[in-house]
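Let's practice the habit of predicting before peeking. Look at the sequence and jot down your guess about where helices and strands might fall. Then scroll down.
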Amino acid sequence: MRWVESGDVRLAVFEDGDPAHPTVLLLHGYPDTHRVWDEVVARLRDRFHVVRYDVRGHGASTEPGDRRDYGFDRLMDDLRAVIDAVGKPKVHLAGHDMGSVQGWEAVSRPEVADRLASYTSLGGPGLRQTAHFVRHGRRRDVAAQLARSWYIGGFHVPVLPELIWGSLLPRLVAGGYGDGVGPRDGHPAETLVKDARNGLWIYRRNMTATLGGGLDPRVGDVPVQLIEPTRDPFVTPALLASIAQWVPRFWHRRVAGGHYAQRSHPDLVAGMIAEFAAHVDGAAPARELRRAGAGRGAFGDRLVVVTGAGSGIGLATARAFAAHGAEVVCADIDAEAAARAADGIAKDLRGTGWAVQVDVADIDQMEDFSRNIISQYGVPDIVVNNAGIVVAGPILDHTVDDWRRTIDVNLWGVIHGCRLFGAAMVERGQGGHIVNVASLAAFAPTRTLPAYSVSKAAVKSLSDCLRAELAGHGIGVSAICPGFVSTPLAHHATYVGRYQREEAVRGLARRRYPPERVAAHILRAVHRNQAVVPVNLEGKIGYVLSRISPRAMRGLARLG
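Done guessing? Here is the structure:
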């Protein structure tokens, strides 16, 4: 530790790593001290010169003589004093919670921004940008954010917050911070009560003045990386999404964690800070960082895996994602069909597509497939389990092999995709989305498609179970349930009993519902994180009837 003077305050500054390395300066939030960053520092100090300091009035730093000196002007003086003491022309800044709020103020002030090589924000929006959001955002989004920010109003009540911090809240904090983050040496600090009481004045001196002041929300040329903890109870996704419009050089990344993501996911947070700093300093961007850049389309540079991509809904979905900027792995049991799909993406859409041959029913092939995709291209952001087959005819005419192959492809293929890629998404910790293509048959039984209906009903149930399990990891799961779609599915189906291929093929062709419209529903489901998506008229009618009159659905099944 060393001391840095700033006005009448002495700041306690802590340094790790080789001073010859690029400097990363970490700002803590409320009511913490520099120790909240311990786990991240341990992972950065071999590559960076890491600097932390206790904000005025917190930890070992002294308090100002006048409480008005907790305003942004003095806080920015502190930041510049520390940067000056470090002796570097520029530093990479990262802030958490109120430290992140300070960081946004720093990049909005030219005299401070000139000293910053980059800025990483974790769990705290800028007050200038928040003010614009509150005035011009959608009412329901603003209301949701205000509801999460209730405590800020409480902080402005005289005396009462100080009394609460001295009695009840220290015991609550000592019990843990949620999201699996418990107390450890240094967090909470022994100075918690003092820090909390002094930190109230940072809120009181800056919130009203900045939120109501109409200050310019635009940020200069400093590269900014926003790390969004998806389970942060204090900040809404809508507020964070609104910030991009004010930052010319902006990257938005997500961590499936709570407010203290730097403690629950230190490897991930440290890795993001390091990747961003290295890129700003001239290194090629890591794949995940490149995908986080702004202005790349709705799914810009996202990695999407689509099974059954050689034709029909799979082909249309692969092309739709590619048209919106995604890199797409086109997987199909037919190697030539997969190659045509990938070539079409490159030639027609000038996008990026890769062809892979795989039998989704074969666990060994699927394990090799997932392992190769992850090693070559990274963990997928979106997986569409679409591959499927049909055996049409009476249940008594289905052989055991008909049942086995249908279940293997339609259900086990989806299970393999969910299990293998879902585990990788969870381990990565940055969220994702899994789409399982089911069918109207999932909730509309029919005597003509027994094995198919059973498999698709299981896919929908699997999707519901998986959605509940993965929600806490920031991973969405959608079950897409189309009605009749004009695809080659009927042509490739197996027919048993009296049912004829030509009749089924003509029926789907007459429906004139193209797979591209299903693909549009899939993209919308991912964007909105929808759970169950019935598609087209019969799909929607069947879904509603299955919920309000199962008896009617059983009656309709006899007409199939």
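How did you do? The two ends are 78 Å apart (CA to CA).
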